[in-house]
Structures are given as structure tokens and as C-alpha cells.
């Protein structure tokens, strides 16, 4: 029986294990000396983090040869020494302060190519959001380095957040279930020369073969510090407390790791500290009428009480760690702080100022475009300001365009008579309005006419782009049969579209698998792809559908063998990916992955195995709320993806008001990323592997196709429907020529001048109808 997924699955849940033993910071009555247990297992380096002053983190191993350094890059209170930990003290770190951590420096001995183990006690006090991956321990360079090496542990962003042990070469990703903030966790990892294992609180979470692991001493000698509180390259600043970190030159056994965990659980010093602010309220700007929000994060002896102040005046009922309210123009310039108290004292945060924005701002203006005769054309305005924001589109002469009140103006079937026409939009909110500068539509003759005689069923549903992929041998252009978005046959597609070594091979006029079609398809292997430059039309705002026919040459082989038959993503550093892609996954399934930026998103997977050399009709439908993934006309998975961000946008939180950029937008000052090519056969950022196989008839729509339309496209036929209306019978069909006969077997003749819907007066004579599509 076919297995169907009806829910979204998180991208990173590659290996799950139940995380047991939540550890509260409570000291037991009696316990063994913790350091004796650790030293008995001969760590090469051992950082107890007991210091209360100074900058040196003593190496308490028997050799003491690898001292660390408390790094304070921002002259703030962190690293905060002397915070309660195992037996005595721990170190507290704040991600808000940034750049503060504990560095052991680079030692080849702490970057072993052979067996090793590490452990650390970590007490996270917040969950990272917005693409942040906080690292309690690591020794790894950034992902952008030419040669990857090392390992690290991080907290994944957003809820639910997990701990994960990762190698940047991509072969190890071992992840827990979610953890609880303000609890201590014992994190340990081992490498026996073949496999890496990850343990949390004495429980084995998982083991994976580290076939691609390379030590820093091999690839990045001298470059990567062994770090506590970040990854080793300055990324992933930790928020909370760390204690008792050790590094070994052998793979610890499960019994040893459990003994370390059990010893530590009995020795935590009770917290008898006044509140310590880790993240103070931050100054912020909000539009008038929006919800303004200020937050504070503190640690210390619980429970806390909070009192927010406007200037020096206490705010009624503002007694939580977060304070939110609807701001007005009169709140502009106000300062907000908070008093946090517990049984041992109180602390008042520094004030944060509120800037209230009452005006409108256009972030991405309209841009003039060139489109082919018969094509769709779209203009989009991107604006922000006090809500609610409404829109009204105008012709260049100032006349209103009826019913065009969205951020995107869609024009269909543009003709030569529209060449040189201009359009602008008025953006309106309760306080003010602003008119955009006009943009011009240039209409040109269609460079190549592509036959759609055997694809009228698809064409009848008005795709904004339709690539037949039936060009002759040696062609460089993949013509768009209905739109203006010709692609390029590229055999040297590199990172972000940059040229790479020519290795791809196309097979033109490959046999198709589409019913009732005879025109050829395109075979691609070795990294050959079809690239279509970014446009709004092939990345519609709101509802859309993408469909295509795909025939994989072979099954995927597991591991990191993710192959991409089609994608429209961008992956700007620090913000992506956005958009969507389809994988032939490492488990050899078809899967559609829409993204929300910051590596968040969802998966919609058909769990049937992909059969090599068999054709599949894949359809990706987004109705503005729900995503549905169809395989061969059947809905195999559906669900929502909160925060879905289309290719062409940068998710909120990046670059302030400059959150949007389009490839055709040349406004000075906008960031140089945000949009990527629509690519058949690979990801725009060339992540993982290209597709190998045959592709045919790829189309994009600025609407959600219905299940009936999808079924019609899969069968490449039309569907007639009829209803009685009074003394008439009304026939409707999506494509083809209406024919009739007095017998079901014919002969059939064309009904002259018939267009859908066709009305026929009921006379009592039996008549049969059919639609001829080719």
C-alpha cells in the first residue's frame, strides 16, 4: 500500500532519539569529587572554568600544557566569571554581547585526525531564532572556507530547538529532540577513527560514519581554535553557562561518559545570585499602529519579578519578561527599561528607546520590463509603513486600473499595442500615501514560435511560462512557449550561476513519456542544467503552481546524495535559503521543500521509491496557505510552511528596511542578493548534487491548479462537463475542439464556432460530444 505523508517534516530531523534526564540545577547532599572522576580518564586538556577573575582559563589536566583565554571583545560584563556551576563556578556567556567566548587557542593536539572525545556541561538560557546556530563547543572554520574540517555542537534555531553534533563536510549530523532552557546538559562526542557518536546526559543519541571527516590539523592548521561558547571561527555565540570541558585522545566508552554525567549531577552549587541581565532591552523602530515589543533575558536565583518603566514611571500590568503594546505617534522617543528582582537583590536594565515611524517607505520600486507578445507581465511594489497598507494601480495617464488593488499588477496576453505603456501605484495607509515612480512595459515580437499543438491541455490553463524542452541538437536556448522567460542550456553551471568547469552533457530529442505527445524531451547528466533568469512571473507572490515531467536515470545512493530536478531558490549568506526546490532525496523519494529563510521550512514527501527510467509527473501547488505535492496526479503530501519566503525576498530581520531585492532592480544601496535563477536540473547555489535523467514540459502558473486540471495534465486530455439549464444543456471543457455525433462511436464532426461554455437547446435527439485536443 502506498504510504502518504500529510504533514510537514522538519528539514534537520535526520536522526532522532528521545532525550531523557532533564537536569535541574539542584545540588545533592553528597557526591564524589567531580575532577577526580574526569582526571582518572586522562584528558589531554581539561577546563574547569573555576576562575573568578583574570583572562586565563587554566588547563587542569595532568600536563596543564593547553591553557585557554577568556575573550571579551566588547568590554561588557561577559564572559562573567564565578557563576554557580559544578562544585563551585562556571562561566556565563551572552549571545547579545557577541564575540565573547573561551579560546584554548590552536593546538594540533586538540585537532586530532585520529580517535578523540570531548565533553562539556552546558546550560542554555534561550532558544536561538532567525537563523542563529549557537555553539557551546567546537573547532571548525566557517562554511565558506575552501577546505572544510573539524566538528562542532550547536543549538538549532527556532522552536523546537535541538542539540546537534555536526561535521561541516556534511557526513555527520546527529540531532536530539528538544531541550529545556535553564537546565544543565552534559554533552559528549566521540570519534573512534571511523564513527562519530553523540551523547546527551549519558544517553547515546546516535552514531554515524564520519567518512569525510578531516581534522583542522590537516586542512586548516593554525586557523581554528578549540573554542567554548562558539564554533571556532567567531560564529554561533552561546547564551548561558558552560562548565567542565575536557578533550581526550581516545574514544570514551559509554560507561565512562555515564560515570562523568552521574558524578556531575550530584555537585551543582545552588544559585544564590541576584539577577544578571544577559540580553537587555534593545532600542527599536516600529510603525505607528504596530505592536511594539521589548524583551529582557536574565539569569539568577528564581523566581524573578519584573516591572517595566516608561522613563521613570512604572507601567501598569507590565510585569513579565516581555512588554508589548500598540504604539502611536506620541510614543516616539520614549525610553523603556525594566527592574528585575529576586530574593537576593535587583537590577535595572539600561533604557531602550522607541522610534515610531508614521510614514510610508518604498523598499523596492517598480522596474521597467520587456515582454513578448502574448505573454503575461507583472509589476511589483514593495513598501512598508504603518498598517493597514492598501494599493491602487494606475495607467501612466493617471486613469485607474479597475480591481488592481494588490502589491502586484498582473497583465495577461500583452499585445504590441501596449508597447511603451507605463504604470504606477499609489501606496496608502491611514496616515499618508505615496505614489511610486512609473515603470514602462515594452512589448516585442516573440523571437521563436514554439508549437503547442500536442500540449493544448496545458496551454489552455494559461501558464505564465512553459518550456517544451524539445529544441534540436546543439541549441543554446530553451524557448518559453507562452511567456517571455527563455532559458539557457548550460553545461558549466557553477555556484550561484557562476561559470564552472564544463562537464555537463545534454541529450536533445530524448524520448518523452507524456501521453499523446511525440515531440522530444531533454536528457541531462554531469551537471548540465537549464537556467531561467529571475523574474516575478516565475516566482509569483501568493498562489502558484509548478509542474514538470521527470525521469531519473538512477536511484540515489544515500548519504548526502540529494539530487535536484527543479528549483527556484536563493541562498544569501546569513539569510537563505528562500523559495523552494524538489529533491530526489538520499532515501530515493520525491520531495518538495519550501523554505522560510534561515534554513527553516518544510518537507512534503512521497515515500514511494523513485523507480529509475520511469516517468513521473510532479506538481507543486501553493494556494496561498497550503502546500500540496502531487505525483502522477495524486496528492501525496500537504501542509503549511509558516513564514514561507519566496525566491526574490530576503527574510525579515536581514538588512533592516532593505529586506527585498530583485535581479532586475538596480536601485543603488540594495543588497546584492535575494533572488536566484529558476533552474531545471540543480539548485541555484549548487548545493548537493545535480539531477541526472530526462525532463520535459515544465510550466509555471500564477494560480493554484485544481485537482481536475492536474489530472487532465497528467493524462494530457481534457474533461467535459455538462449541466442542464432550463431547456438548454451547457457543455464546458478546458481545451480542444468540440465535436459531436449521434452515436457514441461516431463519426464525429466539428461543432462550428463552438467555444466553452457551449449552449445547446434540448430537442429530444440524442447527441454525443467530445473534445479533440490534437
Quick synopsis:
This protein has 774 residues and is mostly beta strands. Strands 37, 38, 41, 43, 44, 45, 46, 47, 51 and 52 form a ten-stranded mixed sheet that branches. Strands 1, 4, 5, 7, 12, 13, 14 and 16 form an eight-stranded antiparallel sheet that branches.
What is the element layout, followed by pairings?
Elements lengths: L33 H6 L5 E3 L8 E2 L10 E4 L8 E5 L4 E5 L7 E3 L12 E9 L9 E6 L11 E5 L6 E5 L6 E6 L6 E7 L3 E6 L2 E7 L6 H4 L7 E2 L11 E9 L5 H12 L10 E4 L4 E4 L3 E5 L1 E3 L5 E6 L2 E2 L7 E5 L8 E8 L2 E4 L3 E6 L3 E4 L4 E4 L4 E4 L1 E3 L5 E6 L12 E4 L9 E8 L4 E3 L3 E6 L11 H4 L5 E3 L9 E2 L8 E4 L14 E6 L10 E5 L3 E4 L11 E9 L10 E8 L7 E7 L5 E8 L2 E2 L2 E3 L8 E8 L4 E5 L2 E6 L38 E3 L8 E2 L2 E9 L5 H9 L5 E5 L2 E5 L4 E5 L7 E2 L7 E4 L6 E5 L2
Parallel strand pairs: 18-26, 28-35, 43-52
Antiparallel strand pairs: 1-16, 2-3, 3-6, 4-5, 5-16, 6-15, 7-12, 7-16, 8-9, 8-15, 9-10, 10-11, 12-13, 13-14, 17-20, 19-23, 21-22, 21-24, 24-25, 24-26, 27-30, 29-32, 31-33, 33-34, 33-35, 36-53, 37-38, 38-41, 39-40, 40-53, 41-51, 42-48, 42-53, 43-44, 43-51, 44-45, 45-46, 45-47, 48-49, 49-50, ...
Amino acid at each position: 500500500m502506498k504510504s502518504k505523508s500529510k504533514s510537514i517534516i522538519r528539514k534537520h530531523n535526520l536522526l532522532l532519539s528521545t532525550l531523557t534526564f532533564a537536569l535541574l540545577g539542584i545540588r545533592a547532599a553528597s557526591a564524589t569529587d567531580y575532577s577526580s572522576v574526569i582526571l582518572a580518564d586522562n584528558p589531554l586538556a581539561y577546563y574547569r572554568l573555576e576562575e573568578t577573575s583574570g583572562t586565563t582559563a587554566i588547563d587542569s589536566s595532568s600536563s596543564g600544557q593547553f591553557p585557554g583565554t577568556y575573550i571579551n571583545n566588547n568590554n561588557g560584563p561577559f564572559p562573567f566569571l564565578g557563576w554557580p556551576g559544578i562544585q563551585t563556578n562556571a562561566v556565563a556567556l551572552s549571545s547579545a554581547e557577541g564575540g565573547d567566548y573561551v579560546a584554548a587557542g590552536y593546538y594540533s593536539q586538540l585537532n586530532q585526525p585520529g580517535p578523540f572525545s570531548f565533553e562539556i556541561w552546558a546550560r542554555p538560557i534561550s532558544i536561538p531564532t532567525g537563523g542563529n546556530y549557537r555553539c557551546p563547543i567546537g573547532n571548525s572554520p566557517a562554511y565558506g572556507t575552501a577546505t572544510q574540517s573539524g566538528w562542532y555542537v550547536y543549538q538549532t534555531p527556532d522552536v523546537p530547538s535541538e542539540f546537534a553534533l555536526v561535521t561541516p563536510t556534511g557526513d555527520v549530523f546527529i540531532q536530539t529532540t528538544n531541550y529545556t532552557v535553564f537546565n544543565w546538559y552534559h554533552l559528549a562526542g566521540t570519534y573512534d577513527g571511523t564513527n562519530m557518536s553523540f551523547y546527551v546526559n549519558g544517553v547515546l543519541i546516535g552514531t554515524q560514519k564520519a567518512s569525510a571527516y578531516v581534522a583542522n590539523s590537516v586542512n586548516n592548521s593554525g586557523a581554528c581554535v578549540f573554542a567554548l561558547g562558539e564554533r571556532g571561527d567567531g560564529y554561533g555565540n552561546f547564551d548561558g553557562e558552560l562548565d567542565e570541558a575536557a578533550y581526550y585522545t581516545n574514544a570514551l566508552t559509554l560507561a565512562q561518559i555515564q560515570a562523568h554525567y552521574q558524578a556531575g549531577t550530584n555537585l551543582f552549587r545552588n544559585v544564590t545570585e541576584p539577577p544578571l541581565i544577559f540580553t537587555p532591552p534593545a532600542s527599536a523602530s516600529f510603525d505607528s499602529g504596530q505592536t511594539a515589543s521589548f524583551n529582557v533575558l536574565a539569569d539568577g536565583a528564581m523566581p524573578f519579578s519584573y516591572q517595566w518603566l516608561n522613563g521613570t514611571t512604572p507601567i501598569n500590568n507590565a510585569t513579565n519578561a516581555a512588554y508589548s503594546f500598540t504604539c502611536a505617534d506620541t510614543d516616539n522617543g520614549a525610553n523603556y527599561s525594566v527592574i528585575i528582582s529576586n530574593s537576593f537583590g535587583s537590577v535595572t536594565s539600561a533604557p531602550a528607546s522607541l522610534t515610531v515611524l508614521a510614514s510610508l517607505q518604498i523598499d523596492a520600486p517598480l522596474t521597467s520590463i520587456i515582454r513578448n507578445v502574448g505573454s503575461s507581465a507583472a509589476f511589483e511594489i514593495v513598501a512598508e509603513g504603518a498598517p493597514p497598507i492598501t494599493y491602487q494601480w494606475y495607467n501612466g495617464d493617471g486613469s485607474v486600473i479597475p480591481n488592481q488593488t494588490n502589491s502586484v499588477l498582473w497583465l495577461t496576453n500583452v499585445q504590441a499595442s501596449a508597447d511603451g505603456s507605463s504604470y504606477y501605484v499609489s501606496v496608502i495607509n491611514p496616515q499618508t500615501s505615496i505614489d511610486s515612480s512609473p515603470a514602462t512595459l515594452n512589448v516585442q515580437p516573440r523571437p521563436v514560435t514554439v508549437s503547442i499543438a500536442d500540449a493544448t491541455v496545458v496551454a489552455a490553463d494559461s501558464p505564465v511560462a512553459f518550456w517544451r524542452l524539445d529544441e534540436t541538437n546543439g541549441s543554446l536556448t530553451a524557448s518559453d512557449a507562452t511567456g517571455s522567460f527563455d532559458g539557457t542550456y548550460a553545461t558549466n553551471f557553477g555556484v550561484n550561476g557562476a561559470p564552472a568547469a564544463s562537464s555537463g552533457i545534454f541529450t536533445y530529442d530524448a524520448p518523452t513519456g507524456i501521453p499523446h505527445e511525440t515531440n522530444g524531451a531533454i536528457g541531462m547528466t554531469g551537471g548540465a542544467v537549464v537556467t531561467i533568469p529571475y523574474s516575478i512571473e516565475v516566482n509569483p507572490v501568493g498562489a502558484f503552481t509548478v509542474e514538470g515531467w521527470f525521469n531519473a536515470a538512477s536511484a540515489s545512493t544515500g548519504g548526502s546524495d540529494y539530487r535536484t530536478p527543479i528549483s527556484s531558490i536563493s541562498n544569501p549568506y546569513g539569510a537563505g535559503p528562500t523559495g523552494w526546490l524538489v529533491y530526489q532525496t538520499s532515501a530515493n523519494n520525491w520531495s518538495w521543500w519550501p523554505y522560510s529563510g534561515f534554513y527553516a521550512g518544510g518537507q512534503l514527501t512521497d515515500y514511494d521509491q523513485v523507480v529509475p527510467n520511469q516517468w513521473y509527473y510532479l506538481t507543486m501547488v501553493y494556494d496561498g496557505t497550503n502546500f500540496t505535492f502531487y505525483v502522477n496526479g495524486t496528492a501525496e503530501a500537504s501542509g503549511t510552511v509558516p513564514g514561507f519566503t519566496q525566491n526574490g525576498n530576503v527574510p525579515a530581520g536581514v538588512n533592516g528596511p532593505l529586506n527585498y531585492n530583485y535581479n532586475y532592480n538596480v536601485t543603488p544601496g540594495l543588497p546584492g542578493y535575494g533572488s536566484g535563477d529558476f533552474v531545471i536540473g540543480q539548485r541555484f547555489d549548487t548545493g548537493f548534487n545535480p539531477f541526472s535523467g530526462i525532463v520535459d514540459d515544465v510550466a509555471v502558473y500564477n494560480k493554484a491548479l485544481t485537482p481536475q486540471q492536474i489530472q487532465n495534465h497528467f493524462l494530457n486530455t481534457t474533461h467535459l462537463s455538462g449541466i442542464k439549464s432550463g431547456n438548454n444543456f451547457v457543455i464546458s471543457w478546458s481545451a480542444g475542439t468540440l465535436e459531436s455525433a449521434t452515436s457514441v462511436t461516431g463519426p464525429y464532426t466539428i461543432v462550428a464556432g463552438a467555444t466553452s461554455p457551449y449552449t445547446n437547446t434540448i430537442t429530444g435527439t440524442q447527441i454525443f460530444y467530445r473534445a479533440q485536443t490534437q
